[in-house]
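Before surveying the methods themselves, let us examine one representative protein, pairing a chain with its fold in token form.
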Amino acid sequence: MAIPSSVMEGSVGLGESNQPADVTRLQRLLNAAPSAKDGPSPVLDVDVRCGPLTCGAIRGFQIANHIGFTDGPIEPGQQTEPALRLTLKPCARS
């Protein structure tokens, strides 16, 4: 089965489209990122709102993972989203 290039449909961040489903997915991805990769601490409330804590967590992740910019938004399939997905622990196969 092919892995989708993006789990988001629209961009998330300050001034972006911030569709509730995309914000929820992003908050869950950020919360699942290990602290060594600058996952948020404390974890974000999964509240479908892209407020200052979510925007701060995005910028913190971009800085800690040397994305090359810290503009805050995450766009589907662009540099930050795949980098975030790569920090997740792969599921064991049986």
In short: The chain has a mean pLDDT of 85. Residues 20-83 form one domain.
